[in-house]
Predict the structure.
Amino acid sequence: MIRFMPVAVQHRARTGRHSVPAWPRLARARGGPWLRDAAVSGAFLALAFWVTAGLWAGPGTRGVAVNLNDQAQTEWFLAWASRFWLGGAALLTDLMNSPDGVNMMANTNNLFPGALLAPVTWIWGPAVTFTTLATLNLALTAAGWYLLFARGFRLHRLAAAAGGALCGFAPCMVSHAHGHINLTSHWLMPAIVYCVLRLTRGQTPVRTGAALGLLVVAQAFTGEEVLYLGALTLALLTPAYALADRELTRRAARPLLTGLAVGAAVAVVILARPLWLQFAGPQRGWEGLYPPENYSADLLSYPALSPFTLAGAGGDAGRLAGHPAEMNTFLGWPLLLLFAAAVVSCWRLPFVRAAVPVCIVLFGLSLGPGLVIGGERTDYHGPFQLLRDVPVIVWALPTRYAMALVPLIAAVLALAVHAALQATRLRALISAGLTATVLAALFPMPIEAAGRTPVPEFFTQGHWRECVQPGGVLVPVPIPVPSDPGSLRWAAAAHAAFGVPEGQFIGPNGYGTPARPTSALLAEVRRTGVVPPIGDRERASAATDLRHWRASCVVLGPAEHRTELNTVLERLLGPGRRIADVQVWQPQL
């Protein structure tokens, strides 16, 4: 998200002890030290394993304790994405919500990383793929920004490591690692920024622009919201930096505009139809799903320490967020103070003078249309109120704008640490000590894992083929719904080879789809454990619903009140038969 940054802080200054050369003379690539870069990246990977260790203890039987529903949905999305190589990952698919289907562009489909990790899904299953991606997102994001700071901008590696660590393991990243892996997929952003940097240097604008376009496409199929936040930050930073360094603007304008035009052309050609499908196609999402008033950041959450950090563990600051996986603004007072000190010490740098107003704008947008303080909604309007009627933008959750602050803050801190390390030994020790102390306070705590019922062998061992052909429809009981999509894991374990009715997804009706009579009946039995009277009307409704779903079979797996569910299904459909560890009905429709 950083478009312009000074290259390095030098030892001598025009006035004073050090200064910064004019942008954008990037360092020439050097042969080493690759070993140190590999060591830092390895440390990031080890830290990511620390955060996700609870999930690695048993991916198939353990999940994110605070967000099991989103994890079940994401595992299905990853199984669907693995079908890309088989030609089965249609963006409008009827493999969920059969037969009406789901518009996958309206959902966080994870198509690009899911396709990359398809071999993992095929061999070990989507639960392992989810855990792998949750781990790699944190490690690769940190490593990507570290390499950009260290090699692209020639910052001291300690400074670059501090900046990379903050980008990859900021409180908001660890929060979203609790099930929202599309929002932790930032590892393409450093490469996107590097392409923009090359354009400002006039280096191969056509080829670099084409690479930029392809990276934008890949990020769109990885995490569209991350791409939106990055693009918005660049759009805000460009005029701010142009005012701070007009000479650069004059030199860089032509190659930059050329490359951006090429990149836009590449991206538009590939994304035109997917974006049309997302915003105007069948089964597109309901635009009123996320009222911005419900997702405004609490002003007091900014200095609060996240309970997912070492310093905040055991605290009750989480009450300031709507959900444990939405702690976007919990930067913490130590980081805010350190950032303020870094801004003061590096104010002479054009990038810092450009970044500060952008941070203020993003901060303001995160507060939403109405200011919330300590959980109380006030009568004061926030800047987001001006965007209430802007299409597409109004769909973004205001609190998530705070995520775009992290790379900007990390870049300013990295510059300040670099400058201090080039100065006197005392200043270097003070700067390094303060930065280390703040990062230690924000040290991420492991994700809390909870037990999950294992997926039945009927699905993991391929017995499902005895009742439904690939591409057909299997009705799992419990039927997956947004409040409990757990049985989506059964279809995911079979690599989404067959369709299921209903499910958890964003569509024209918001989350999911209205329940049909049989689905509502089975859900009530599961909730209460009470077997209602079953007569001809209920049997006729069941037959109608199964025809609507085009169901080949009905499968009862592990569930609460399973005995009662089995009784109801037998009264609706007649006797079932045992296959492996489930009960199966194949009604003649």
About this structure: The first helix runs from residue 34 to 56. DSSP finds 20 helices and twelve strands in the chain. Residues 1-31 have pLDDT under 50 and may be disordered.
